[in-house]
Design goal:
Helix 2 (about 55-70) packs antiparallel against helix 3 and helix 5 crosses helix 6 (about 180-185). The longest helix is centred in the middle third of the chain and has 39 residues, at about 110-150. Helix content is about 40%, strand content about 20%. By secondary structure, the chain is α/β, with parallel strands linked by helices. It has helices spanning about 40-50, 55-70, 75-85, 95-105, 110-150, 180-185, 205-215, 225-230, 260-265, 290, 300-305, 355-360, 360-369, and strands spanning about 1-5, 5, 10-15, 20-25, 35, 160, 190-195, 220, 240, 245, 250-255, 270-275, 280, 305-310, 315-320, 330-335, 340-345, 345-350. A seven-stranded mixed sheet has the order 8-7-6-9-12-17-18, with helices on both faces. Strands 13-10-11-16 form a four-stranded mixed sheet, with helices on one face. A three-stranded antiparallel sheet has the order 3-4-5, with helices on one face. The chain contains 13 helices and 18 strands. It has two domains: about 1-130, Four Helix Bundle (Hemerythrin (Met), subunit A) (Up-down Bundle), CATH 1.20.120; about 135-369, Rossmann fold. The chain is globular. It binds the ligand CSC[C@H]1O[C@H](OP(=O)(O)O)[C@H](O)[C@@H]1O. The ligand CSC[C@H]1O[C@H](OP(=O)(O)O)[C@H](O)[C@@H]1O binds near residues 55 and 242.
Length: about 375
Amino acid sequence: MKVDGKHFRSIWRERDGWSVCAIDQRRLPHEFVVARLTSCEDAAVAIRDMLVRGAPLIGATAAYGMALAMREDASDAGLKRAYDTLVVARPTAINLKWALDEMRASLAPIDPVERAEAAYARADEIVEQDVEINRGIAGNGLKLIEASVTRKKPGETVNVLTHCNAGWLATVDWGTATAPIYLAHERGIKIHVWVDETRPRNQGASLTAWELGHHGVPHTVIPDNTGGHLMQHGMVDLAIVGTDRVAANGDVCNKIGTYLKALAAHDNNVPFYVALPSPTIDFAVNDGIRDIPIEQRSGAEVTDMTGRTADGRLETVRIVPEGSPVANYAFDVTPARLVTGLITERGVLKPDRASLAAAFPERVAAAAE
Ligand SMILES: CSC[C@H]1O[C@H](OP(=O)(O)O)[C@H](O)[C@@H]1O
């Protein structure tokens, strides 16, 4: 999307034709730094350390990681080593394994001498497919925002709450949860976004607020615990969040705290939507709460905060007493019963197995192979 009028994507192939550029999201919102990935290991570290993050972008980065690997060693052993290196970079977003499976399916059957070129071509397809899918999510989600407009007085603003960052920074472009928001904004609909800061890494405060602000979308950053109060007082017309993995039964895995927002939305009759591209559906998992692996990250993400001092320096400070144990669960799972609908590129679906299978039969078949 736009950064002060200039179009950007979150990841792209450098002009040299082989290295890969990605916005270093650990540096935002204070610095806009573009990192250059030149090896499979670079891609794996970028995913693990959250230089790039967000399920679809993790998948795109892994796809280019496989292409970088094929430049280094296109043998069968090299292909396996690259897959095994990248697939363990983070455990929860299914897009990582989906992208690697797609790359391996394209590369394993062909002559190793052809693999590097084929890998870049397939990775480019995955990148462009993400953008097209997210445009579809935008159009399908827009209908929900337009329905909200009809329920309000003329000229009133539609207030959307979102959690974490499921914006263009979490994908190649457009985002998932933010795609309908950007399209509504472009169509002149008066829209405002309540942005959950999303402790501990503050993807909302640091990334969602940054991208909405630089694209000109009205928004307000709120502490994570504010959403319930806003919903009780009719200040949220709908919630739209992203997801890292949707189980076949419609359970939704997303950033920690999503479940609590869904509970508040259910208690206040606020529509709670989840936006996702079909590669985020895991038809191999039938019970999200039981079977989706929840990443636990370093306690330093909880004990420390990084910010800009009054004189412009970036400083990291400790906010938890030395010696106090911390727990850092990066995701939780919202049961399907709390989800109003799943906004996909093929429409807004009920969060259940039959609806998901009917919309994406090819994904069901692939999971059964
Ligand atoms: C469109 S996927 C966005 C999804 O990914 C985020 O997790 P992380 O920042 O740890 O990669 C969060 O769960 C978002 O909803």
